[in-house]
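In this supplementary section we document a worked example of the pipeline. Step one takes a protein sequence of length 236 as its only input; no multiple sequence alignment statistics are reported here. Step two produces a three-dimensional model, which step three serialises into structure tokens for compact storage. The input and output of this example are shown verbatim.
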Amino acid sequence: MSKTYRIAPSILSANFAKLGQEIDDVISSGTDLVHFDVMDNHYVPNLTIGPLVCEAIKETAKRVGGIIDVHLMVEPVDRIIPDFAKAGANIITFHPEASKHIDRSLAMVRDLGCKSGLVFNPATPLHYLDHVMDKVDMVLLMSVNPGFGGQKFIPETLNKLKLARTKIDAYMKATGREIWLEVDGGVNAMNIAEIAKAGADTFVAGNAIFTQGKESDKNRYNTIVGELRASLATVK
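The serialised model returned by step three reads:
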């Protein structure tokens, strides 16, 4: 049985002047999720988009079958979770360092009707998962330090992915419940197969999708996403 791989374009790299069309085009090209990066200029040194933008793209994403995957890089996180749940998020992930009570924050996300997950920075240990796996639907490993797009993939992430995969597989074997393992940062057609071999099943790509090819080329997303899929097809 072949493994299911999911590609999540990060709209942080999209053209915001025509965001709805960008989302329509990129999901139509064969991607699975819309990755929505939220930064507050406190937890990370950048300021991006909020729930109003999420609400604005909700109908477009729904129309073309996309899941909105919201990654909260904000502190404190509990205050903003309900806003994104209301705005149309399907998955909400956050950093354990940004919550005073991780179990409670995860439970809040689920109580509001979304799937929940934890995000691990390159130097954040995985032990935060140990007592909350029952409330986690996604584990997201950052393969760059969060805050800015266009950074290079940190190779040590491959070892961390293997550790996370082992934890998730053991939990799935014991419970039968699926947990997605996502990676974000520096993912492209050249390294996505190696990242998949290390254990990831969901891949965030920003610059690798939105900044490649000529904007006048209406098929450029089909080409770029096709290259990512072709690389994943080589994974045994």
